[in-house]
Design goal:
It contains 14 helices and 13 strands. It has helices at about 5-20, 45-65, 90-100, 115-125, 140-145, 160-170, 190-200, 225, 255-265, 265-270, 275-290, 295-310, 335-345, 375-385, and strands spanning about 30-35, 105-110, 130-135, 150-155, 175-180, 205-210, 235-240, 250-255, 315-320, 325-330, 350, 350-355, 365-370. Bound molecules: pyridoxal-5'-phosphate.
């Protein structure tokens, strides 16, 4: 590598270090979990693990380990993209199960939520169209828009007046990109109002249900469906890495749009499909999800316990949220890291979220609550925060 390249890399890292936001990998500490997205404990649920494990063993027994051309599924790696060797009846049945669960016409699996958002937003909104997006949508939506050919314009977070102004002044085909439950603020989209405006201005809605999936709705079906608004939504994206406790994502759309994605969506076309172990974990989670009332109730009880015990504090502003995501906005990277460390030193793993992941001045500690956090842990955590 040339010296200039080394110098570039070093100077970019120094930039981060001096802004107090150098990202580093940390091995999980074993402290009380107030940072993972495993809202319902599915990622640590033994019954789900056993169900997925037994499913793979049963398929292996049935299919054997013959060369690929002599069997219908490959037990370990999927061996190729869905358009080549990576497709099989198991993945198609899983898509059918998900389309039914989400009451959509069709479902298309993706290797991750990042891939889904990247691929959908870069392939569908074409030249001369505009994507009007909530300013707080996830980085994967931004990256998709950047790769795509459509224009893009932000509207202020959840601000219906601003959205209306942007819809009114935008020419050509319009898409509106939102999240159902915002990943950093933990608040929900003003969905009914957004849908009414999108109907009025004939805009197609793309909603990312990454954080609402599994926890909103009687069966964990997410916000759009729980509010009966799903049939009017052009595209819904549900990820599996959070409450589902697995990995991957699914896009719910019309059969024709699915066909479009199979033809034009590059992360879908040019990547090896999910392996059987991942598919079995997703299936086990969705077989259980409609019955996971106990976990959803425990989660909601824990959210009420946290919000009921946390007190106003001049050190931070608590963003109002009824969700598992509770953000203490502190401002300043160094400051936020220091306060997070004080909380971690007491045995509670809550992580600082720094600029540029969140806007400068909005640096925060994001506390993620779960069904499995004990009442004692939550009392102790709120005590620790109240005594900062
Ligand atoms: C709102 C939102 N959308 C999409 C993603 C990406 O999903 P995945 O982790 O499955 O790539 C995330 C993950 O952080 C997210 O928070």
């Amino acid at each position: 590598m040339s010296r200039a390249v080394h110098e570039h890399i070093r100077s970019k890292l120094l930039e981060r270090t001096s802004a107090d936001n150098l990202r580093t990998l940390r091995v999980n500490s074993g402290m009380a979990d107030f940072f993972s997205n495993d809202y319902l404990g599915f990622a640590r649920n033994k019954a789900l693990f056993d169900a997925a494990h037994n499913e793979v063993l049963n398929i292996a027994e049935r299919e054997g380990f013959e060369p690929m051309e002599r069997k219908s599924v490959s037990i370990s790696g999927s061996t190729g993209s869905r358009l080549l060797s990576g497709n099989n009846s198991y993945v198609e049945q899983l898509e059918q199960q998900l389309a039914e669960f989400y009451e959509g016409e069709a479902a298309l699996l993706f290797n991750s939520g990042y891939d889904a958002n990247l691929g959908i937003l870069s392939s569908i909104p074409y030249k001369d169209a505009t994507v009007i997006y909530d300013e707080l949508v996830h980085a994967s939506m931004h990256d998709g828009m950047r790769l795509g050919k459509a224009d893009r314009v932000a509207f202020r977070h959840n601000d219906l007046e601003d959205l209306k102004a942007k819809l009114r002044t935008t020419k050509g085909l319009k898409f509106v990109a939102i999240e159902a439950l915002y990943s950093m603020d933990g608040d929900e989209a003003a969905l009914a109002g957004i849908m009414a405006l999108c109907r009025q201005y004939e805009a197609a809605v793309i909603i990312d249900e990454a954080h609402s999936n599994g926890i909103i709705g009687n069966k964990g079906e997410g916000k759009a469906q729980a509010e009966g608004l799903h049939r009017d939504i052009f595209m819904r994206i549900y990820t599996f890495g959070k409450a589902i406790g697995a990995h991957g994502a699914v896009a719910i759309c019309s059969a024709e749009t699915k066909q479009f994605l199979i033809n034009y969506c590059r992360p879908f076309i040019f990547s090896t499909a999910l392996p059987m172990h991942a598919l079995a974990a997703i299936k086990a989670a969705y077989d259980h999800l409609p019955q996971a009332d106990k976990e959803r109730k425990q989660l909601n009880d824990n959210i009420a316990l946290f919000t009921g015990n946390i007190k106003p504090n001049p050190l931070f502003t608590l963003i109002e949220s009824k969700s598992p995501i509770q953000s203490l906005v502190i401002s300043g990277n160094a400051n936020t890291k220091e306060i997070a460390k004080t909380i971690q030193d007491k045995g509670y793993d809550a992580r600082p979220i720094l600029a540029p992941t969140v806007p400068t001045g909005k640096e925060r500690i994001r506390i993620c609550l779960h069904s499995f956090n004990t009442a004692e842990e939550i009392y102790d955590l709120t005590d620790a925060i109240n005594n900062l």
